[in-house]
Design goal:
By secondary structure, the chain is mainly alpha-helical. The protein has a single domain, classed as Four Helix Bundle (Hemerythrin (Met), subunit A). Helix content is about 75%, strand content about 0%. It has helices at about 20-45, 60-85, 90-120, 125-155, 165-200, 205-210. α1 packs antiparallel against α4 (about 125-155). The longest helix has about 35 residues, at about 165-200. It is elongated, with a radius of gyration of 20 Å. The N and C termini lie far apart (about 65 Å). The relative contact order is 0.18.
Length: about 210
């Protein structure tokens, strides 16, 4: 049976559930937040105190982590589809897959940060480093919060029954998760791909040498 999540006694004047409306409002504010971080990075990327560092990006590794995060969005869609059909087991399966993929992405990001530090790029190295680590660090924190949220839904679902309320829990979590995925796609495209391939046209010394 497919549950109609539009039948909701807690609708606002917009027709949306009040909790869903609150999530959209939060995501709207987060768009401004990440937009500011990305814009700041783009502005100061060309005004680094010691030069550009995009040449240390490992595009293949970051591409894998990006693919993992995109697959987590697909798993989130399948989780919502499962609960809307009244299948709690399917929902739990795909919620767990989503959370695992999210944790793998965070692991990739921690590995990348470690490699950058080894190459001499830290938040204190220059403006490029400070804006890059701030931007990607906040995104990683968002993903980590999402992973914790998903596992909370997974374990709480053992006390729930299939229905519109449970589907709403998953749908709201899905809105958040898809948002952090979209933000990463923007960061990957603008910061990594554009930055890295643009750096190929510049002859620059290694980061460690630039740091003195």
């Amino acid at each position: 049976m497919y549950f109609d999540t539009t039948v909701d006694p807690h609708r606002t004047s917009t027709g949306l559930n009040n909790r869903k409306m609150l999530m959209w409002a939060f995501l709207g504010s987060d768009v401004l937040f990440f937009g500011t971080l990305i814009a700041t990075h783009l502005v100061y990327r060309g005004q680094s105190l010691v030069g550009h560092q995009e040449d240390i990006f490992s595009i293949p590794i970051t591409s894998i982590s990006t693919f993992v995060l995109l697959m987590s969005s697909l798993a989130m869609v399948l989780a919502l589809s499962g609960i809307q059909r009244g299948n709690l087991q399917t929902m739990r399966l795909w919620i767990a897959v989503t959370a695992i993929f999210g944790a793998i992405f965070v692991g990739f990001q921690m590995f990348e940060f470690h490699e950058f530090v080894q190459e001499g790029l830290t938040p204190r190295t220059n403006l490029f480093g400070s804006t890059f680590f701030t931007m990607t660090g906040f995104h990683g924190a968002h993903v980590t919060i999402g992973v914790i949220w998903l596992w909370s839904l997974f374990f709480a679902s053992f006390k729930w029954k299939a229905g519109t309320e449970t589907a709403l829990h998953v749908e709201i979590a899905g809105l958040y998760w898809h948002f952090v995925d979209i933000v990463w796609v923007v960061i990957f495209g603008i910061v990594y791909l554009v930055g890295a391939y643009g750096a190929e046209d510049r002859l620059l010394p290694p980061v460690s040498a630039l740091g003195g």
